[in-house]
Amino acid sequence: MSLLGIPPAVVNALGSILAILVIATLIVAAMHVSRAQGAPAELVLRIRSWWVMFAVFTLAIALNPTVSIVFFALISFLALKEYFSLIPTRRADRSVLFWAYLAIAVQYYWVGIGWYGMFLVFIPIYVFLLLPMRMLLIGETTHFLRATGSLQWGLMLLVFGLSHLAFLLALPEAGNPGAGGAGLVLYLVFLTQFNDVAQYVWGKLLGRHKVVPTVSPNKTLEGLIGGVLTTTLLAWLAGPWLTPLSGYQAAAAGLLIGFAGFIGDVNISALKRDLGVKDSGQLIPGHGGILDRVDSLTYTAPLFFHYLHYLHY
Amino acid sequence: MSWLLRWVFYAVIVRFVVLFVLGLNVRHRERLPKQGPAILTANHNSHLDAMVLISLLPLRLLGRVRPVAAADYFLSSGLRAWFATRIVGILPIARKRASPDEDPLAACDAALARGEILIFFPEGSRGEPEQLAPFKKGIGILAARHPDVPVYPLFTHGLGKALPRNEALLVPFFLDVFVGEPMFGRDHPQDFVEKLRERIIALGAEERLAQWD
């Protein structure tokens, strides 16, 4: 089956995700009927938000590559805005922050024209060197290191890191004749989000030993291992379908996404703990802010991209 | 015609800027009034404050919401006056009396009698960004005259960063809005103003907000 020129493998994969969502919704509905106090309100909200995110994401990757790239640029914008709103900032840096927002448009422009070299160096080199220069012109030196350091940290994770999702769409079509760039994005985003849920579920079922008690007390070794193994299995199954990876390579990609997703998640947890906030925002009911949802992707997107790029492009 | 322009301004432009370019995190949204008459009071940091508070209310109430604003500033030129009164929909009041027996709050009394929702900034002006100035006593007098009209304390954070006084560049930041339980003006006006100020400060202390130095 092919819709709107989307590769059949992608349509089938989207259909499978839809089936998972339907099953999850039915489970929650069954909980609602069978338990005296009904299903937990947060769980209901979470599932509802998953439906919305699934619908928006499907439209974004199915319409055409330009729409997808603009969509990921908007995700970077929302995430960076949330980050700038949470961290300590200086009044003197208002215009510097404005330039940082403009860097999002420029970075995604390099993706749009497929300029791989510039895509790689723009934020780690040019933005890294030029934004502090803008600060020097303003001349405020109190908390200078804090300001430059926190600015670049956010740009690296939320713009440079997340823009790798979009560059999967700019890779040569011949590298993945079956499912194309949309297949690669779907593979990475689905496995990363699935891994989050799987680690949570395994942790709830078997969790005993805390992994990083001071950063994220609810994360357990059992949840981590269970999640990574489930993700690896799924990565191995879906790999030949959506990516050019061989069976072994796809399983290794699953291990990579499982562990990297965990680190990305606790990385943002440590930031929130440092700042004394529980959720990064209220944008996604039941989940928190956008940072709470893209935390794992900030690690899995660049790592999976370069793993794939090294092996196949 | 101008009601249509005002509707488009709030439904499209203001909502795009407030909800997308900036972004709102609202605590206790359920406390907001469902109908007039009511008075929303908040700390004042930016020209956008009133528009943010208006976008918290449903569009069906738009025709009844009026930000109370200084006549000397907003009516100073023709174009500004047209925009302020027709599009933003301000209720202009005089900051200084022209004669001893003039009542600067008469227009507010009339608006409340019509069942409108007033937006009031007790600091009187925007002042230093993200810092609370002393309150003027007008809100206390108004509340005492209308003891059955609920006065809602609100605290907002973020607009002083996004668009402070004397800056033209809008820099996106999420805005935090905290809505308090309504208060009623059954005390002496000065006591009411003190209590209101304390409530607004307490709302701002509900969560740790990002440092701005």
3D structure, described in words:
Chain A is mainly α. Chain A has a domain of 103 residues. Chain A is built from eleven helices and no strands. The longest helix of chain A is centred in the last third of the chain and has 29 residues. By secondary structure, chain B is an alpha/beta fold. Chain B has one domain: Glycerol-3-phosphate (1)-acyltransferase (3-Layer(aba) Sandwich). Chain B has eight helices and seven strands, in the order H-E-E-H-E-H-H-E-H-E-H-E-H-E-H. A seven-stranded mixed sheet of chain B has the order 1-7-6-2-5-3-4, with helices on both faces. The radius of gyration of chain B is 16 Å and the shape is globular. The relative contact order of chain B is 0.20. The chains are: A mainly alpha (313), B alpha/beta (213). At the A-B interface, helix 3 and helix 4 of A face loops of B.
Please outline the helices and strands.
The complex is a heterodimer of chains A (313) and B (213).
Chain A: H1 8-34, H2 41-62, H3 65-86, H4 94-112, H5 116-138, H6 144-167, H7 180-206, H8 221-242, H9 247-275, H10 290-294, H11 297-312
Chain B: H1 2-22, E1 24-27, E2 38-42, H2 49-56, E3 65-70, H3 71-74, H4 78-88, E4 91-93, H5 106-113, E5 117-120, H6 138-145, E6 151-157, H7 159-162, E7 175-179, H8 189-204
Parallel strand pairs in B: 1-7, 2-5, 2-6, 3-4, 3-5
Antiparallel strand pairs in B: 6-7
Briefly summarize what is shown.
With 313 residues, chain A is mostly helical.
Q: Note the beta-strand portion of chain B.
A: 15-25%
Low-pLDDT ranges of chain B: none
CATH architecture of chain B: 3-Layer(aba) Sandwich
Question: CATH superfamily name of chain B?
Answer: Glycerol-3-phosphate (1)-acyltransferase
Task: Determine the fraction of residues in helical runs of chain B and give it as a percent range.
Answer: 25-40%
In angstroms, what separates the terminal alpha carbons of chain B? 44 Å
Largest interface: A-B, 25 and 19 residues
Number of strands of chain B: 7
Quaternary structure state of the chains depicted: heterodimer
**What can be said about the biggest beta sheet of chain A?**
none
